[in-house]
What does this fold into?
Amino acid sequence: MPGDLYNLNSNYGTEDELRECVAKMHAAGLGAVADIVINHRCAQFQDGNGVWNQYGGKMAWDQRAIVGNDPNFNGHGNHATGDIFAAAPNIDHQQEFVRNDIK
It folds into this structure.
């Protein structure tokens, strides 16, 4: 799962390789679609208690960006509007700063 949504380098390849692949697809008459699940962004850093709930990159969020009823990640946000996903923090999309960052 992604940590920094604006960093396209990954174990699958570099941003340059991705751009080259998309260009080749377009040259062949194909389109590309990016499918991401913004609600489950993996934290990149631990807080003072060792909980993975600190984010870096362009969207450097803290516990305020995580729903408050997620028992795994000590979020300080609003209660989740859906089910809790234990493998990654549940992002609080009710927070105005979160909505502004992902526009």
The chain is about 20% helix and 5% strand.
